[in-house]
């Protein structure tokens, strides 16, 4: 009887753990399903990129009149004194600048400059999808550049601007 209780409690515990792990793996799959590609990071290595509107794998949906939040975790390979963010919508091969309200990555972007080599940082920023932007498919190119205008990290994400 004590053995049966031990087996039941062990089974119940393992079943709960199994369900919990399945839940965690499912959430991880959703969060990590953002389709991004490195586009020339020179002074850092990207660990992860998350963007609101990118919950489904594939193209990110950028809705008119909303703020889209971008989070990029990365590890610089050298000391970075300053960080400047540049964002472009690439149509065919033509980059069109997306103005950021705060392009200074060292201010209100979750980074404390200077950035040390080998330490992971997570940059966060938002961009407003203006109602006057045309509805279209594009590639969003996001760069974080150092004091010498070298890309610390650079990533691209397929996107569509919608109503």
Automatic annotation (TrEMBL):
Organism: Owenia fusiformis (Polychaete worm)
Superkingdom per UniProt: Eukaryota
UniProt GO BP: intracellular cholesterol transport
Lineage: Eukaryota, Metazoa, Spiralia, Lophotrochozoa, Annelida
Signal as UniProt keyword: yes
Segment forming the signal sequence: 1-33
The protein, known as: MD-2-related lipid-recognition domain-containing protein
Subcellular location: Secreted
Principal location: secreted
Cellular component annotations (GO), alphabetically ordered: extracellular region
Domain MD-2-related lipid-recognition stretches: 36-159
Entry similarity comment: Belongs to the NPC2 family.
Xref: InterPro entries: Ig_E-set, ML_dom, ML_Npc2-like, NPC2-like
Keyword Disulfide bond part of the UniProt annotation: yes
Listed SUPFAM superfamilies: E set domains
Single GO term (MF): sterol binding
Entry keyword set: Disulfide bond, Secreted, Signal
Short name of any one Pfam family annotated for the protein: E1_DerP2_DerF2
């Amino acid at each position: 009887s004590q053995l049966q209780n031990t087996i039941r409690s062990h089974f119940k515990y393992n079943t709960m753990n199994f369900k919990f792990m399945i839940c965690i793996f499912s959430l991880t799959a959703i969060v990590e399903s953002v389709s991004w590609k490195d586009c020339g990071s020179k002074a850092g290595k990207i660990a992860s990129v998350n963007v609101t509107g990118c919950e489904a794998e594939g193209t990110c949906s950028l809705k008119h009149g909303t703020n889209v939040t971008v989070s990029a975790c990365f590890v610089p390979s050298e000391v970075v004194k300053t960080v400047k963010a540049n964002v472009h919508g690439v149509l065919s091969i033509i980059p069109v600048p997306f103005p950021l309200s705060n392009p200074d990555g060292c201010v209100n972007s979750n980074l404390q400059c200077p950035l040390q080599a080998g330490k992971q940082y997570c940059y966060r920023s938002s961009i407003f999808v203006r109602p006057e932007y045309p509805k279209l498919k594009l590639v969003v190119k996001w760069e974080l550049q150092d004091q010498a205008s070298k890309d610390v990290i650079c990533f691209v994400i397929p996107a569509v601007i919608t109503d």
